[in-house]
Specification:
The chain contains five helices and eight strands; from the N terminus they run E-H-H-H-E-E-E-E-E-H-E-H-E. With 136 residues, it is α+β, with helices and mostly antiparallel strands. The chain is elongated.
């Protein structure tokens, strides 16, 4: 059984959206002001996957094979620890908390449309006994 949902970050944090749009406009303006428009377009191209995921929404999925959030995927055999938070679950390939979790792990964010207990039940059934649960 697989569960899929989509989380729109722009709806969760509208203040951050305003800041991101302002930074994009300032960077573009500075690129044109310095008469290096290519610099502005390269910066937008570099950040386009992040911006796309932020504005279009992040698709999250928990299935028999593993978990996916946006562009990040992890299989169940790679998960070594699970950090449970108020509105998210971090699946990590490390046994303890690491700063690399943001890039190597998968963070499943919940909103009001997701049955959190169903997702947690799927996670628990697919993890081995050596996986550490961190947080509350």
């Amino acid at each position: 059984m697989a569960i899929q949902w989509k989380v729109r970050t722009t709806e969760v944090t509208p203040q951050r959206t305003t800041v991101i749009i302002a930074v994009i406009l300032v960077c573009t303006f500075v690129g044109f002001l310095l008469r290096i428009p290519l610099l502005a377009f390269l910066a937008l191209g570099f950040f386009s996957p992040i911006l796309f995921e932020y504005f279009a929404g992040k698709k999250c999925e928990v299935s028999e094979a593993g978990a996916t959030a946006g562009f990040s995927t992890i299989t169940w055999d790679k998960v070594k620890s699970v950090k449970v938070e108020e509105n998210a679950v971090q699946l990590s390939p490390f046994e303890s908390e690491s700063k690399l979790d943001a890039t190597r792990g998968v963070r499943l964010v919940f909103d009001e449309t997701v049955e959190r207990e169903q997702v947690m039940e799927i996670i628990r059934t697919h993890l081995g006994k050596d996986v550490r649960f961190l947080g509350g």
